[in-house]
């Protein structure tokens, strides 16, 4: 697993491997970001941040190419909505895209939408 943390001044990388219940750090790195690359928790220099990540991954010789990243809770909107259990995942995604503007107070082209089916509603 490769973890990546993007802060206002640097990017940090941690590569973990697991053998049974034991974890091992395979590589770790910190790479400074160009000035003002991240402003008020928003990436303003996507190319600069991407180049810093690439430099660090190469220097750390990370073997894994897929990374786990987190988004701060203050930057996430979670909403539980009831939908028909008969809908396919594609239909759910289309309906969520169509209804998203009533739940999200930002332009939809500035957000990333995702969903998870929680299971049938019991009516409680």
Blueprint (SSEs and pairs):
Elements: E1 2-6, E2 10-19, E3 22-32, E4 38-39, E5 42-43, H1 46-60, E6 67-68, H2 89-99
Parallel strand pairs: 1-6
Antiparallel strand pairs: 1-2, 2-3, 4-5
Attribute tags:
single chain, 124 residues, alpha+beta, four-stranded mixed beta sheet, 2 helices
Brief overview, please?
The protein has 124 residues and is an alpha+beta fold.
Chain oligomer state: single chain
Q: How is the biggest beta sheet arranged?
A: 4 strands, mixed
Strand content: 25-35%
SSE series: EEEEEHEH
Q: Uncertain spans, ≥5 residues at pLDDT below 50?
A: none
Query: Measured on Cα atoms, how large is the radius of gyration?
Result: 19 Å
End-to-end Cα distance, whole Å, is: 39 Å
Determine the number of helices (DSSP H or I, runs of at least 4 residues).
Answer: 2
Helix amount: 10-25%
Biggest sheet, strands in spatial order?
A: 3-2-1-6
**From the helix content, strand content and strand pairing, which structural class follows?**
alpha+beta
Overall shape: extended
Mean pLDDT: 86
Give the total of beta strands.
6
Characterize the structure shown.
Helix content is about 20%, strand content about 25%. About 5% of the residues are buried. The protein is extended and about 50 Å long. The protein has helices spanning about 45-60, 90-100; strands at about 1-5, 10-20, 20-30, 40, 40-45, 65-70. The chain is α+β, with helices and mostly antiparallel strands and about 120 residues long. The chain has a 4-stranded mixed beta sheet, with helices on one face. A two-stranded antiparallel ribbon has the order 4-5.
């Amino acid at each position: 697993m490769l973890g990546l943390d993007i802060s206002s001044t640097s990017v940090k990388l941690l590569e973990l491997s697991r053998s049974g219940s034991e974890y091992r750090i395979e590589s770790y790195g910190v790479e400074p970001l160009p000035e003002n690359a991240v402003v008020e928790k928003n990436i303003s220099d996507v190319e600069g941040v991407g180049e810093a990540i690439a430099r660090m991954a190469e220097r750390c010789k990370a073997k894994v190419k897929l990374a786990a990243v987190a988004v701060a809770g203050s930057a996430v909107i979670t909403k539980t909505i009831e939908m028909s259990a008969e809908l396919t995942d594609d239909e759910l995604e289309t309906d969520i895209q169509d209804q998203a503007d009533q739940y999200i107070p930002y332009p939809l082209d500035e957000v990333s939408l995702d969903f998870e089916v929680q299971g049938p509603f019991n009516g409680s």
